[in-house]
Design brief:
Strand content: 15-25%
Strand order of the largest sheet: 1-2-3
Subunit structure: Homodimer.
InterPro entries: YbaB-like_sf (IPR036894), YbaB/EbfC (IPR004401)
Oligomer: single chain
Number of helices: 2
Protein name: Nucleoid-associated protein FHP05_11445
CATH topology of one domain: Ybab, Chain: A
Organism: Cerasibacillus terrae
CATH superfamily of one domain: Nucleoid-associated protein YbaB-like domain
Subcellular location: Cytoplasm, Nucleoid
Helix content: 55-70%
């Protein structure tokens, strides 16, 4: 019966860790991330759920004869903000998966 007590403690620890993980994930989803390209000509804002919440484009970068440059700036800023979210997610959630065998989560 001694082994059952250890199993109960382990389950409590797992539940506690799961609550902490959910709290960390909720906090992450509430965070705001921002990236710009072209020296601030294009700025993309997103939340931790990877939802784009705002796009700012400076008037002087809007050139009907060079739409490709504007597209490139938007892509660069968007990819940068998404990378920031991925990095922060890995950093935040990685603390919970340290030491766990691969494939558990």
């Amino acid at each position: 019966m001694k082994g059952m007590g250890n199993m109960g403690n382990m389950m409590k620890q797992m539940q506690k860790m799961q609550k902490k993980m959910m709290k960390a994930q909720d906090e992450l989803h509430e965070m705001t991330f921002e990236a710009s390209a072209g020296g601030g000509m294009v700025t993309i804002t997103a939340n931790g759920k990877k939802e784009i919440t705002d796009i700012k484009i400076e008037e002087e970068v809007v050139d009907p004869d060079d739409i490709e440059m504007l597209q490139d700036l938007i892509l660069a800023a968007t990819n940068d903000v998404l990378k920031q979210i991925d990095d922060k997610t890995a950093q935040t959630m990685g603390q919970f998966t340290k030491g766990l065998p691969g494939g558990m989560f």
